[in-house]
């Protein structure tokens, strides 16, 4: 752990600490909402240890507390955690060593740990950022969930304190960064409309899965223009064409012509002609 801390810059360490603090508040609210909603204390604690995915945990607990079945809750969590599969390919170079270490790395892989790893310039720092952020978040999150669950059991009615609004607020905060793209906003809005319209007719949990039809509006990524699609390869092609054009131009022959009499210097045009050996 000390070697990882010495490897990273102070700014990165500070940002990791701030992320841990923010996640501690979210974890405490998750524990309090779960217990105050009627779940036993061991449920949020076990989910935090085994699942360790804030968005999936909130979604699964929300489905259960609203009357949905366990299968719908598990399916919702799996759909949300599907994003971790491409994350694993992205940071594959930080997973080295024996199999048990890779399993631990997969367990502590989150959006934050992957983001900090990708910000580092070399493999050594990527590995340090990933492991430090992942392990710190795992410890902080689980401690915060236990404390929040204990506080939720003492509070009893979280609706009186407005903690019931924390669940949709947290989910909205998790979704907002992804809504910068126009097509993503359209897909999310269409999916939300479908889920709300289907809520009176379908069991709890299924409207959330039905909202995935909103992905139909996202479509395929827009193809970049010809200039942008060229990228570095296009620039290289343009440079090659320019070089070819230069090579194709005729090059003037600067070698002296032995049959051509050189021009006389205008400054010495009034000089007398040199005497020749032949005298007439």
Would you write up a description of this structure?
The protein has 280 residues and is mainly α. The termini are far apart. Helices cover 65% and strands 0% of the residues. The protein contains 14 helices and no strands.
Short descriptors:
0% strand, 14 helices, globular, mainly alpha, 65% helix, disordered C terminus, 280 residues, single chain
Structural category is: mainly alpha
Which spans have pLDDT < 50 for at least 5 consecutive residues? 223-240, 242-249, 276-280
Radius of gyration: 34 Å
Report the biggest beta sheet as strand number plus sense, adding barrel if it closes: none
* N to C succession of SSEs: HHHHHHHHHHHHHH
Query: Count the helices. How many?
Result: 14
Strand-helix topology:
Layout: H1 2-7, H2 10-36, H3 42-50, H4 54-65, H5 70-81, H6 84-90, H7 99-107, H8 111-118, H9 123-155, H10 166-175, H11 182-198, H12 206-210, H13 215-218, H14 226-248
Short note summarizing the structure:
The chain is mainly α and about 280 residues long.
